[in-house]
Amino acid sequence: MASTGAAANVRAVAARIGIDTGGTFTDVVRWSPRGVRVHKLPSTPDDPARAVLAGLAAVRTRADEPVDLVHGTTVGLNAVLTGALARTVFVTNRGFEDLIEIGRQDRDDLYAFAPHRSVPPVPRRLRVGVDCRRDATGVVTPLTAAAVQRTVAAVRRLRPAAIAIGLLHAPADPRDERRLARALAAALPDVPITCSAELLPSFGEYERFSAAILNAAIAPVVGRYTQRLQQDLGPGRLRLLRSSLGVLPAAEAAQFPARAMFSGPAGGVLATTQLLRRLGARHAAAFDMGGTSADVCLCGDEASADTGDGAIAGLPLPLPSVPVHTVGCGGGSIAYADAGGALRIGPHSAGADPGPACYGKGDEPTVTDAHLVLGHLGADTLLGGAFPVDVDAAVRAVERLARRLGMSLAATARGIVEIADATMARAILVITAERAVDPAAVPLVAYGGAGGLHAAGLIERLGMPRAVLPPHAGAFSALGLALAGESVELGEAVRLRADGAGLHRLTALGRELQRRAAAALEVPTRSRVEVLVRYAGQGAALRLPLAPDLPRRFAREHQRRYGFVADAPIEVVRVVARAETQPRPFPLPPAPSRGNQGHAAVRRRPIGGSVRVLRRDLDTIATCDGPLAVEETTATTWVPAGFAVRTSPYGLELCPKRQRRRRTSS
Q1: pLDDT tens digits for 328-338?
Q2: Which of 27, 121, 443, 566 has the most CB within a 10 Å radius?
Q3: What pTM value is reported for the model?
C-alpha cells in the first residue's frame, strides 16, 4: 500500500470514494463537499476486484486522478463461510492442541439429537505444541531456545500459508508469543503470522485462539485481493473500514484483516448514525436488504453497550464490531417448496450469477421475481433502466413454484413477500425486543436495493412508527464508507474490581491508552475509553464507557438487557481506547426542482390491474397515498394501500395513513 510520503500527498488532493461489494451489486459513491455521485453495477463473484475497478473507473474524472478509496469487502467473510481458507498452522502450548476443537459446552440447539459442531479451520495435523507454560501468577515452564527451534522446524515441515500463535495467559504477558513470532518470521518471511494477544488482548483462551486462527486463515486471501486492487488502482490508496467503524490504517488492515470482516454492513451503520444526527433523532433500526442477505442493527443510545461476543460460521470472533444481525434473506433469496409442501425462502441465494430468474440466466424464483409479478418492480426499474430484466421469465419461475404448491400465481408471489417480511421482522426483534427495546418506539431506516420494497411490511408487522428511506438508498453502505473518518483502537486485558482503588487504576490505564491512540493519528481527534465489565465469574461482559459511576451504569444496563442485577462483585476484564477523526458530513439534500412533482406513470401488473409509478428526485414529492411505487436509480420504495409517503429533509418518510392523520390533528 501507499508509502507515508505518498499517503500524505494523496490526503491533500485525492477524491474520497467508497465502494461496497455485495453478493449481487457493487455500489460506488464519490463524496465531495458539494454532494455525492453514485454508480451501481453488477458484482463479479468469480473475481470481485473486476467490478470494483470498473466502478472506480466510472466515477473518476480521469484515469490518473488520485483517489482515497475506502472499501467494504466480503472477501474475508466469504472465505470463512465457504471454507476457502489458507493452509494455517496453529502453534499453542503442548497438551492444549485440542482446546480449539473442544471449545465450550454451549449448544445452539438444545433439542437436536445430532447437534452440529463447527470445526475450526485447523485440523489436528496442523497444530503444533510448544514446551512452555504460564499460569495466572507467572512462568511455569520457560520457553527455551531449544523449544523455539523445535517449533520452527515442526512448522516448516507443515508448509503453512499462514500461522496463528495462541498461548495460555498471553494477554497478561505476550513475550513468549512475540518470541515465537520473531523466530517463525525469520524462517518463513513470506508467511503472515497472527499473535492472539496482539489481535485480541482478552482473557478466554478459546475465543482468543479462534479469533487468531480465523484472522491468520483469511490473511493471505484478503492480502492477495487488496494487493491486486492496489496494483491496478492507479494513483491513490486503498483502505478498509473496521467492523467497529472508522478507517483501518493500512498496516493494521494487512496484519489484522479480521478487524474488517464486517466492513460492508459497518458502512451502512455509519451512514445511519450520521443521518440520525442530521434528523436530530436518538435512535433507529438500520435495515439493509441487498441481493443476498438482510442486515439489521440498532443505532443510537440503546446500541451503546456491546457484549463483544461475535461469531462467524459457528466459531467465536469476539473482535470489536457493530452489533449487526444478519439473515439470509435478500432480493436474490430463492423461494421453494420444502419436503412438507410448505413455501420457504432462502437462505440460499441466486446471487449475481445466475441471479433471479428475471436476469435471464437462471430459472429459480426469488424475492425479486415475486416483486416483478406483483408489479412493484418493472422491466426498466433496476438502475433506472440500465439493467433491464425479463418480467415474463419471473412470471414463469413463480408459476412453476405455484403449481408445486397448488396455489395461484398472485397468492404465491404475495406469500414469498410476506415470508420475507416475517423473516426480517424476526431479525429486527432480535436487536430490539430481545434487548428490552420496544420496536414501536424505534423508527426504521431502510436502505439497500430492496430495503424500500419491504419497509412498509416491516413497520406494519412490528408497530414501528415510521420508516425513513435515505437518499441513494441502494448505495447507502457505500456512502457510509465514503464518509468514514480515521480511527485507531487499542486495548489491554485486565482483571480489576470496579471499586475505588480499581477505578483509579483503570482511569490511569485508560488515559495512557487514550494518549497512545490519539498520538497515532496525525490530525485533531476525538477519543473515548470503554471497558468490558461483568459480574465476577460471568462469561459475557458489557461494553460501557469508563466513568466514575461505572458500577451504577453497569447495574442499569444489566437490568435493562438481562432483567436482573446481582449482589456480586463487578470486575473489568478489558480496557479499550478509541481515537478517531470526525466523519465527513452527511451530504446535504439536492436543491429543490421547482414545479417538478415527479413523473407519474402506470405499470400493468402480470397478475392483472395496474400500479402507479412515480419517478422523482428525493425532494420533489408531495405527500402521496398508496398503493404506488416510488422509483429512483438505486432503489424502489413500495407504498401499499393504507400507507402514505412524503418528502423529508433527508429522504422519504413512509408511515401508516392513520398515524399521519393522528400527528396532523394533534
Answers
A1: 899 999 999 99
A2: 27
A3: 0.88
